[in-house]
Amino acid sequence: MGIYRRGRTWWMSFSVNGRQVRKSTGTDNKELAKKIYYKAVTLITEGRWFETQKAKTILFKELVEKYMATHAKSRDHYTVKRLLPEFGHLALSEITTELAAEYRSKRLKEVKPATVYQELSLMRRMFNVARKEWKWVKDNPVADLSFSVGNSNARDRWLTIEEENRLLSCAERPRWLKPLLIVALHTGMRKGEILNLRWQDIDFTRKTLTVQRSKNGQKRGIPMSELLTNTLKEFRQNTKVIDISGRVFPISDRSLRVAFAKALKKAGIQDFKFHDLRHTFATRLVQAGVDLYTVQQLLGHKTIAMTMRYSHHCPESLRPGITVLDNLSQFYHNQAVSRSSGSGQNP
Is 53 a domain residue? Predict the structure, then answer.
């Protein structure tokens, strides 16, 4: 084991798991070659040699190809088209936080912040899978990058009660549309979660349903309202469900988009997207004084930071904190009155 010269370049030789490895240091400087060699020895000792080599040899475009085949969501196929020209030719080890930050700055001059947010989010998810599942990289270069760009033009659109009544009255056909919309309005579930919901995930006795896999990869339970419970019971009876392992709404994403668009047009509701039903659910809870932690759990947000976007709707939910001051003032006032009365009495 050690370094040796081949022509003008220094090479290094060492054994990894009983296998002899000979690799060029890429330099004709002996002192630098020694440093490269000792770094390799350290990685071998820590069991990180092959992990490091993968990051140096696997290209970003290879990561994209494998990720899209195994983990891609519907929008990812569109979003990734912007990432490939910038990073596709680079090895994973060459993609640094600084490089991702430069990309962010460049894209913010070209498109809306929410678009940049989508692109960076996808990139972060891909590196997380490469790190956790495939052991291709040791670190995620996008993990420490600020994602605040996604909040500056975040939508804040929700249905009024009058709009909801109009929408539901125009959603009688197809017959699955109205029950599906009630699920969205009464659970805050994402579209993908609703389309993947199965009858076996619904417990009519306990009046709960379970999202088996949220966006963050975790399972969560959601209590059902009386309206939602009765709606799903009636829908199940009308559809004559036999196999409880089947999907509640066995339809395609495209079928839902078309039916939803027709209902919106018929109801005269503009500037409204399916995801805004989730915003409607959260906004109504917060406006009614439900605390943000509860809303976070119901929505399946991994951190409270995501839920904080609704905080401006909830001044009334903060009122109990101020009420404490009134109670304290009254308590000390009563104490003072009591002491004053006591001192005025004759012994």
Answer: no
Per the listing, tokens 């579930």 go with 189
Identify the pLDDT of residue 256: 95
pLDDT tens, residue by residue, 106-152: 988 898 888 888 899 899 999 999 888 888 888 888 887 766 544 44
Q: Which domain holds residue 83?
A: 60-150
Catalytic residue, chosen from 278, 279, 284, 309, is 278
Question: Are residues 168 and 67 part of one domain?
Answer: no
Catalytic site includes residue 278:
yes
Two tokens at 254?
Answer: 């495209």
310 as an active site residue: the answer is: yes
Which of these is catalytic: 34, 138, 198, 215? 215
Mean pLDDT of the chain: 83
**Per-residue pLDDT at 167 exceeds 90:** yes
Residue 334 forms part of a structural domain: no
CA 19 centroid distance within chain: 42
Are 34 and 66 in the same domain? no
- Is 54 inside any structural domain? no
Longest dimension (CA), the chain: 110
Together in a domain, 100 and 121:
yes
Catalytic-residue membership of 190: yes
Residue 12 within any structural domain of the chain: yes
- Can you give the pLDDT at residue 22? 75
CA torsion through residues 129, 134, 135, 137, sign: negative
